[in-house]
Specification:
It is built from five helices and no strands. By secondary structure, it is mainly alpha-helical. The chain has a single domain, classed as Arc Repressor Mutant, subunit A (Orthogonal Bundle). The protein is elongated and about 40 Å long. It starts with a helix and ends with a helix.
């Protein structure tokens, strides 16, 4: 996944994003439907994160499974800054996804 695609908010690439590839083997259709909706909601909310570091760092952490030092190298920022960005991004996503989670319960 290129940094330019992450910066522009274009996260949906079925070949590289683990959240788009929900394993449907041995699952009931209704469970798969809920899983796929969850994937779409995560992608939508990821696009709402502020750019300028937080969205990019969080996307690399979540989608590309990069470590904070790897993200720091990619974005040319200090590791401590990347750790803060990832923490804020995950916290923001958690808050943004609360209504969706409560809807399921």
């Amino acid at each position: 996944m290129s940094l330019e695609r992450i910066r522009s908010g274009q996260f949906r690439d079925r070949d590289t994003e683990p959240f788009d590839a929900v394993d449907t083997t041995h699952r009931l259709p209704e469970i798969v439907a809920v899983s796929n909706e969850g994937v779409r909601e995560i992608n939508r909310q990821m696009e709402t994160l502020p750019s300028g570091g937080i969205r990019e760092a969080t996307a690399l952490y979540v989608y590309a499974d990069f470590s904070c030092p790897e993200i720091a190298t990619q974005l040319d920022r200090p590791v401590g800054t990347i750790k803060a960005y990832v923490h804020r991004g995950k916290k923001n996503l958690q808050e943004l996804l609360k209504p969706w989670k409560n809807e399921e319960e």
